[in-house]
């Protein structure tokens, strides 16, 4: 476990732990609902939500080619971030999520920095990520932490912005 300060701790955790599972469900629900509310004025269909969560359980976020970290504030699971190696030098930042009640407390930066440390431990020298236009706060966070927009490295359906940073 890494103690970041008096209130934040961050540590690697298995993708299938109870806290990781709950955070992934909240993260996916947030991403999906945001998209559907923006484009179709509705929330995610519960059956679709279950199908998509089951299809992406996080199995790529395990050593030796990945990692997942959970941030806790005063002991409570507050957020998560994952990394996975794309090739010998690049890691991709995935599943950055902070529960709403912890936003604005510095936790998102703590998570990204912990994920960057995990990427370094995996041997990465560069971190990349993809995100959407409507995630304005996330894009501002990445830029504040030294990420710059790069050319697309994926053709993911919902990706609209790609960022990279030398580690």
From TrEMBL:
PANTHER family noted in UniProt: AMINOALKYLPHOSPHONATE N-ACETYLTRANSFERASE-RELATED, AMINOALKYLPHOSPHONATE N-ACETYLTRANSFERASE-RELATED-RELATED
UniProt keywords, alphabetically: Acyltransferase, Transferase
Protein name: RimJ/RimL family protein N-acetyltransferase
A family per Pfam: Acetyltransf_1
All residue ranges annotated as the N-acetyltransferase domain in the record: 22-167
Keyword Heme among UniProt keywords: no
Origin organism lineage: Bacteria, Bacillati, Actinomycetota, Actinomycetes, Micrococcales
């Amino acid at each position: 476990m890494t103690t970041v300060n008096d209130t934040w701790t961050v540590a690697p955790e298995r993708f299938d732990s109870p806290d990781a599972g709950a955070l992934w469900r909240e993260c996916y629900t947030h991403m999906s609902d945001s998209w559907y509310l923006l484009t179709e004025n509705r929330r995610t269909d519960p059956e679709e939500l279950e199908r998509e969560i089951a299809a992406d359980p996080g199995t790529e976020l395990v050593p030796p080619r990945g990692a997942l970290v959970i941030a806790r504030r005063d002991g409570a699971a507050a957020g998560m971030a994952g990394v996975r190696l794309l090739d010998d030098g690049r890691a991709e930042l995935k599943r950055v999520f902070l529960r709403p009640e912890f936003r604005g407390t510095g936790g998102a930066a703590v998570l990204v920095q912990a994920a960057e440390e995990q990427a370094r431990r995996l041997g990465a020298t560069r971190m990349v990520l993809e995100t959407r236009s409507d995630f304005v706060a996330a894009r501002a966070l990445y830029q504040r932490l030294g990420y710059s927009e790069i050319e697309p490295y994926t053709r993911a359906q919902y990706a609209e912005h790609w960022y990279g940073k030398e580690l």
